[in-house]
Amino acid sequence: MALQITDGSFKELIAGDKPVMVDFWAEWCGPCRMVGPTIEELAGEYEGKAIVGKMNVDENDEIPAEYGIRSIPTILFFKNGELIDKHVGAASKNLLEEKLKAIL
Fold first, then answer.
1. CB of 59 within 8 A of CB of 5?
2. How do the domains of the chain map onto residue ranges?
3. Which residues are bridge partners to 39 per DSSP?
4. CATH superfamily of domain region 3-102
């Protein structure tokens, strides 16, 4: 299951030794609901190797503002606390998995 990430837990999480993929989403967002099951699948498949999480932009505003999240879904990829890659909009599992594998 994808980790629920908040403004409070974000900085510590991305600073860890595992790569991190964060899906910025909202309940009312249709494309976000399309990507949601893929995020959950990847969370299960990469458990122990990477952290796959979701941040609700309606409940958290600091981090989305800091990273300039204007459209959702936006998926950010971090390694050692650094932003490595990003994808804006709905995406296939293959595309997201390629980006995740690239930072492992």
1. no
2. 3-102
3. none
4. Glutaredoxin (3.40.30.10)
Q: What is the pLDDT of residues 59-97, one digit of tens each?
A: 999 999 999 999 999 999 999 999 999 999 999 999 999
29, 42, 52, 91: the active-site residue: 29
Active site residue 56: no
Per-residue DSSP letter, 71: S
CA atoms within 13 Å, Cβ hemisphere of 6? 3
Q: Catalytic: 48?
A: no
Residue-wise pLDDT for 2-60, tens only, equals 999 999 999 999 999 999 999 999 999 999 999 999 999 999 999 999 999 999 999 99
Catalytic residue among 32, 55, 63, 100: 32
Contact 38, 31 (CB under 8 A): no
